[in-house]
Amino acid sequence: MSGARVEAPAAKPAGAKNSAAKPGAAKRGGKAVTPNTGERTIVAFCCSECAYAAADAAANARASLPPTVRLVLMPCTGRVSPLHLLSALADGADGAMVAGCLEGQCHYREGNFQAIDRVAFVQRLLESVGVEPERVRMFTMSAGDPPRFVAAVREMDRVIGSLPPLGRA
């Protein structure tokens, strides 16, 4: 072992800001939340087998996606809970989309059917409290169809852009 000595970084005084933190970001419930700057945000929950693979292929083909979309990799859309969708909206997103395998072709048998039911449930829930149900949508595609992924994201961006900003308390 060499004689090099590694020193721990000096402790920051109480109240000092973290230089790596996003400017203007606040903490709420342990999550960094960016203040609303007028830009719309869409959270896309993508299954790893089809939708995320299609997104990856679209990126490799240099297809441009709207900058408003944030991808979240999920093992299967069947793992997306209504709380994931509602939390995305509560934490500042203007819309949430679930993108998974084609109907009947889920790599985990019926995960996409569970996701379809959960998205429909959240849409009914949003409508019952006076929020536009089209803020949450489900899209299906195969891994070999990147244009379908791009079209789904652009469609979601168009729909969210046509809605009024989501009221926040």
Please, could you describe this protein's structure?
By secondary structure, this protein is an alpha/beta fold. It has a domain at 43-160: Rossmann fold (3-Layer(aba) Sandwich). The protein contains 4 helices and 6 strands, in the order βββαβαβαβα. It has helices at residues 51-60, 82-90, 111-128, 146-162, and strands at residues 26-28, 31-33, 42-47, 69-74, 95-100, 136-140. It has a 4-stranded parallel beta sheet, sandwiched between helices. It has a two-stranded antiparallel sheet with strand order 1-2. A hairpin with a 2-residue loop joins strand 1 (26-28) and strand 2 (31-33). Helix 1 (51-60) crosses helix 4 (146-162). It starts with 25 loop residues before the first strand and ends in a 7-residue tail after the last helix.
Shape: globular
Largest sheet: 4 strands, parallel
Low-confidence parts lasting 5 or more residues at pLDDT below 50?
1-36
What is the CATH first-level class name of the domain at 43-160? Answer: Alpha Beta
Report the CATH topology name of the domain at 43-160.
Answer: Rossmann fold
**How helical, in percent, are the residues?**
25-40%
Widest sheet: strand order? 4-3-5-6
Mean pLDDT: 83
Measured by DSSP, the beta-strand proportion falls in 15-25%
Q: What is the succession of H and E elements?
A: EEEHEHEHEH
Total helix count?
4
The CA-CA distance between the termini, in Å, is 58 Å
Category by helix and strand content: alpha/beta
Number of strands: 6
Architecture of the domain at 43-160, CATH level 2?
A: 3-Layer(aba) Sandwich
Q: What is the radius of gyration computed over CA atoms, rounded to a whole number of angstroms? A: 19 Å
